[in-house]
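Minimal example, chain plus flavin mononucleotide.
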Amino acid sequence: MNNQLFELAAKRRSVRKYTDAKISDDVINEIMKVALAAPCSFGHRPVEFVVVRNKKTIRELAGCKSLGGSQIICADAVIVVMVELSRGEFWIEDGAVASGYILLAAEQYDVGACWVHIRNRTGRSRSSDEEIRELLGVPDGYAVLNLIALGGKGERKKGYAESDFDFSKVHRETF
Ligand SMILES: Cc1cc2nc3c(=O)[nH]c(=O)nc-3n(C[C@H](O)[C@H](O)[C@H](O)COP(=O)(O)O)c2cc1C
C-alpha cells in the first residue's frame, strides 16, 4: 500500500555532520510550519522555538552542553525547542512531538537533522537549560527541552528497511 509517510520516516536518520550548504529561509519556514502543526496537550500550543542562524550564537549554544553537543558547531541552523511551563503538565510530551515533526519535515527537504538533548543536561557551570535561556533572552516560565541541529548532509546514512522494524512490538488486543 502507498505509504509516503513511512517512506519518509524510514529514510530519516540522525545526521551529525554538516556541509557548508545554506538552508534557505523558505525551507526553514516550511519546517517550522510543520512544527507548529504538531498536536499538543489541551490544544494550549505551549511550545515555542528560537531559530538560530548566527554562527557565533550557534557556537555559544554548543558550549551550553558539556557532553554530546559538539555536532551543533557545524550546523547551519539550530532550532531551540522550549515549552511554556504554566500551560500544563505535559510539557515534555508537547516539546517532543513538535521535535519529531521537525525531524521528519527536515528529511522531506533532504536537510540533515539531529536531536540534541538539553533537559537535565549540564553546561559550562549551570544547567544547559539555564545557560541557553540566558544566552537567548528567554523569559522565566519556559524550559528548553532540546535543540535540533540542521544542515546540509555531511554524512549519508542508509535509511531503514521495513525488515529493520520489529513488528512483534506491535501487540493486538492484549500484550
Ligand atoms: C529523546 C532523544 C534524545 C536524543 N539526544 C541526542 C543527543 O543529545 N545527541 C545526539 O547526538 N543524538 C541524540 N538523539 C538522537 C538519537 O541518538 C538517535 O535518534 C538514535 O540513535 C537512532 O538513530 P537514528 O535517528 O539515525 O534513527 C536523541 C534522540 C531522542 C529521541
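Strands lie at 47-52, 77-84, 111-117, 142-152. The radius of gyration is 17 Å.
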